[in-house]
Amino acid sequence: MLPEATRYLKATVSLFSPNVFLNASKLSAHGAPSSLQTRRNLRVSRCLAARIPPQKKPREKVEIPGLDMVTYGDRMHYVPGLAKPVFPPWEMSFKDPRYYRSPPAQEMALYKDKPCYVFNQRTSILEGVRQAAWLTKTHVRPGPLPHLISLAAKPENQLPDQDERVQNAIKHSRFWDTTEPRPRKEKYSNTLLLNLLHLCGSLQLTHPAVGRRILAENYSLAATWKRGEDLFQIRGRNGLLHCSMDPLPRICGEQEVLETSDQVLESFYPVSPTIDLQQVSVYKEEMNCTGFKGEYPYPHAHTLYFLETSDPNCQLHPEQFRAKMIMFTFGNALARAHKLYGTQPQSLLERPITVQAVGTNGRIFQFLVFQLNTTDLSGDDGIKNQAWLDEDVELYDFAKVRPFIKRKEVKVPAGLAGYKPETFSKFLALFLHGAA
Amino acid sequence: MALSCLTRALRSLTLSQPALLSSQTPVAQLKLGTLVPSTVSQCRGFLTTASLKQNRAYLKQLDKYTIRPIGIKKSGGRDHTGKVRTRGIGGGHKQKHRWVDFQRLRYEPNKEGQPFEEKVVEVRYDPCRSADIALLAGGNRKRWIVATEKMQAGDIIKTSGVIGRMAVSANEGDAYPLGALPVGTLVNNLEIQPGRGSKYIRAAGTSGILLRKVNGTAIVQLPSKQQVQVLETCIVTVGRVSNIDHNKRIIGKAGRNRWLGIRPSSGLWKRKGGWAGRKIKPLPPMKSYVNLPSISAN
Q: Which residues span the domain enclosing A213?
């Protein structure tokens, strides 16, 4: 602090009684005074106490109806013995967005008694994939789709020098892309994803349908659905989207879709399926938005790409990350279904909507293919949606800047080690799905 | 004169040090005890304490329960005047406070009155107490409780407030009223007044014994062999508190005590008085927390 200010404050403190404290009512972000009274310690000292003096209760103000308090308001200055005048709260005559106080939730126009449970991009649900499957009425099958693997195995769907180019892409993102010794995780995972997309995009010469797609980022998704008695919404921005002019073909035939009605969703009693979801009372019903307005030329969501966030407050475990992938893929599919077929729940869509998702942390990939068969999600029985989830597929084992040496033995050498080519073939297969 | 000093100080502070402004309180109204200077209330708020939220009093004022650990400031044995009140406290590893819910029978907002079950998500070390804590998830909420001896992640734990005619065969970790448990069970986290939260038998490895049940009250023996009479509707947890080998640990070196925040005692030899040495006394009489109606109620 300034020595001048310190001198003045010390002088004032010495004039008052030893402990002078200002009672400051802390205003919350909305402008309404919060119940917490933070008391400021006016003692300017280096050590800031962990224990503060007990708060003295202010003198009780007695209100006698019919009796007017004589205040010093008229006299325009303090008079000992007279009461403090209470003025009506001052409001600005014009509307200034910098000093706007929002009304409490009950007085908002969109307030509803029934709460809505919202899943946003920062939600980390306790039960992970099981809870996401229950919320979206999905039957999740582990393992990759066989016909996608066979798609990738065909020679015309492979890049020339595929392994070498992918390894160069990994080395670029992990080693060469920085002036510091090592690039940070969020940087290298982002660079790796863009490099891989660039490699896949080079197949546009042989597959012209790839040119009918575009990448979109930071679009806001909104989808609403009813599950049992509760209303659920997905809101938020999930990252990178590959959208195309043509929809993806359906994965499962009609027979298998009807067979899903025999499968039972996993329950996780005693935990409720709405745990960890944000409860809001002020919401718009029937909020469905694919993220794009009007006649967008690329309306069909093809693949979503998820990266791990760098925000320390919402670090997701792998299970919760996969759950987020499922929820947002479902959200995109549902928003598209509502746009095509209307918001009335339909037990079987004649053209199921397929959306894919890829999630990565820079080394480990999760592949998801989701097929939306039904929008009638209120009951637990009936036709379910389907998802095929390929968990924890590594692209490479190690990418060390400095070799890992233990007891004078090089355990892991510097550079890229343990490259697995199958992972990129799966990535390419998901990319070319619908175009080959 | 005091007023003008203060206003000058405040004016100089606001002009030169806008960085002191707390980002969370852009407009803070200051109000002195008896003086109401109009100039002070119009100037922008400034922060005189660096972090208001980490003193111990803040923990008592929070109203919304959260499972996130809350930062606390170490007191060093000092009280609000700044002088040492308790010797031998200071330093040690930083600790974050996890708000443990001691009122085990806490119903969710819309589900009053029914016994409920919860699932143990994880059992972990708590730096603020000798026992371990467990994260329970049930319904729509998660909360921390003091873990019992054999609690593990994945267990289902029952909490009930119902006293039936027959005594319940309780599993470890479940919480029942004293009237519903058989005599002789090991209990912990004892409430002495129903609904007030557990105050007794919370330390690592401790357990009380339910001795007998006497028309509407129950008598429990605490770990210090003291007997206590409480209403039978008080909720207790069954079993021993976790971390049972806590009293058998060996500190090993002076440094480990310093890590725990225990400062060395003075090395000066002092003559011990009448307070020292082993005392063999009869047990104190049983303490009753039950307000029985007085006999002479005319």
A: 139-218+238-272+295-432
| Domain boundaries of chain B, sorted by first residue | 100-246
- A35 Cβ under 8 Å from any chain B Cβ: yes
A315 contacts chain B (CB < 8 A): no
CB atoms within 10 A of CB A248: 20
Q: What does the pLDDT look like over A43-70, one tens digit per residue?
A: 545 446 778 888 888 888 888 899 888 9
CA-to-CA distance for A10 and B9, rounded, in angstroms?
A: 10
Contact list in A for residue B12 (CB cut-off 8 A) is: 2, 4-5, 8
**pLDDT per residue as tens digits for the range A320-345:** 999 999 999 999 999 999 999 988 88
ipTM of this complex prediction, to 2 decimal places = 0.82
What global pTM score does this model have? 0.82
Residue A14 within any structural domain of the chain: no
According to DSSP, the residues that pair with B220 across neighbouring strands are: B210, B228
CATH architecture for segment(s) B100-246? Roll (2.30)
In a domain, A47, yes or no: no
- Report residue B71 as tokens: 């930062």
**Domain presence at residue A79:** no
Q: Which of residues 134-153 of B touch A (CB under 8 A)?
A: 137-142
Q: Which long-range contacts (CB under 8 A, 24 or more apart) does B245-252 make?
A: B245/B205, B246/B130, B246/B131, B246/B203, B246/B204, B246/B205, B247/B204, B247/B205
CB B200 within 8 A of CB B192: yes
Question: Which positions 31-60 of B are in contact with A (Cβ < 8 Å)?
Answer: 31-33, 35-36, 45, 47-58
Q: Sign of the C-alpha dihedral, residues A331, A336, A339, A341?
A: negative
CA-based end-to-end distance of chain A? 69
Chain B residues close to A50, C-beta within 8 Å: 54-56, 72-76, 78
How many domains does chain A contain in total?
1
